[in-house]
Amino acid sequence: MASIYHINKGVSKPIEFKGLKAQYIAYLAIGLVLLLIAFAILYIIGLSLFVVLPLIIGLGTSLFFTVFHLSRKFGEHGLTKYLAKRGLPNHIKFRSRRLFTNLKSK
Predict the structure, then answer these.
(1) pTM of model > 0.85
(2) Is residue 13 a part of any domain in this protein?
(3) I need a surface site. Which of 23, 41, 67, 95 has the fewest CB within 10 A?
(4) DSSP state of 14
(5) Are 24 and 70 in contact (CB under 8 A)?
């Protein structure tokens, strides 16, 4: 009795949707939800639709361009690495050698 197994060849590949890679899909989704909430709040407050709609469309367009630009520039893990590298100090100052001389095991 022969069994046929299908092998999923995309198991270790990152998620990609229309050019967006990995966490950028979540960034875009969160941004769109925030824009929807902002639209609802501004509309409920009583601002004119002629003011609210161009504002939300402009912010949405800039959100799309920014997220796609970040996805192309940094890739899957590049933005995290970039932010981590930016957080490193250029140099470390210490005024005493006591920290390093006490490292010897007794």
Answers:
(1) no
(2) no
(3) 95
(4) P
(5) yes
